[in-house]
Amino acid sequence: MLCILMVNYRRNFVPGGTFFFTAVLYNRHAHWLTEYIDDLRYAFRETRAVRPFHIEAIVILPEHLHTIWTLPPDDAEYPARWKSLKSAFTRRLTKRGLAIPKRQDGSALVWQRRYWEHTIWDEDDLQRHVDYLHFNPVKHGRAQRVGDWPYSSFHRYVRQGFLPANWGGGSLDGMELGEPLFDD
What we know:
Layout: E1 18-24, H1 32-35, H2 37-50, E2 54-60, E3 64-70, H3 78-95, E4 116-119, H4 123-139, H5 154-159
Antiparallel strand pairs: 1-3, 1-4, 2-3
Helix pairs in contact: 2-3
């Protein structure tokens, strides 16, 4: 007997809240997010113009991104922002003439349908997630040092004096990055 487990997704809607997100391309081997970084930036600008939010931190890898947003007071509507952002990026890729496969319902197969969300509860939680996000290119073998990866708010943190330029030089030792480390 085959048992199918249906996950009941429950989102936490906190007006004015701060949230950590992960969004992933449908094709985990595509490099569209970095290849078409200007189109992604445009999608962020377009979305923020209609539905403002503050980007606390962000890192963009070829096939996924992590970001931390703070929403305006009395506003908890991040799903509409994600829908807008994903749609705007998809439209830009389509205008470029990319051959984008379609789902059976006709929607473009650019993004995975969902995204992962975590509500940031306090300053320690925020710091762990910012560190995790900034270290992600090293974790995934995209850079030897955090500062080597160009598509990261890490550079803004350095300019603003929040982090030294040599932070995250390549070792996970002693770093708490928002998720447990497992020995292989």
